[in-house]
Hints:
By secondary structure, the protein is mainly β. The protein has one domain. 14% of the residues lie in helices and 37% in strands. The chain has two helices and eight strands. It has helices at 2-15, 30-38; strands at 39-46, 49-58, 71-79, 97-100, 107-110, 129-135, 141-149, 153-161. The strands form two sheets. The protein has a five-stranded antiparallel sheet. A three-stranded antiparallel sheet has the order 4-7-8, with no helix packed on it. Strand 1 and strand 2 form a beta hairpin. It starts with a helix and ends with a strand. The model has no long low-confidence stretch (mean pLDDT 82).
Amino acid sequence: MRFLSMAMIALIGFSGCAQKGTFDLFKMDEAHERAVEQLRTGAIIQSFETKALASAIYLNPIDPQTYKDGEYFVGAVYFEKVNQDVKKWDLYTHGYTLTLNGAKPTLLEELKENDPRRALIPVQNNWNKYYFIRFDSVPEGALTLLLENNQTGSVALSYQKGK
């Protein structure tokens, strides 16, 4: 009984001593917070095997002054591949297409490793291909970024475009 009462007093005494919480260690700047809010990720799975992974950030809400003459995305794509050399494959060599509400991109630029736009997406690894993507402007409403292949399937990443 004595041990229990001493333990309770110690527990109550030390419970108010913390100056910082765990989440204080993970503070982000405002632009990074908006980027994480806009991150969408999906996978194409066939017969319990992952054929492709897609992650994308919708850039227009993050920096509306810069991205205002179209719909802009930074995307990271991984494809299952026989050839493990990532330098030899891209979106089109695997037969995939990328559309936004059914429209093809007006710009699909592969981002090199040292490109600063690549830092906008929090998914960083050596086996993804990174792209800067621009589509023509779409009216307000739902946006569906669709990565598809007629043999393996498709993955849709959904966004909402505001005013």
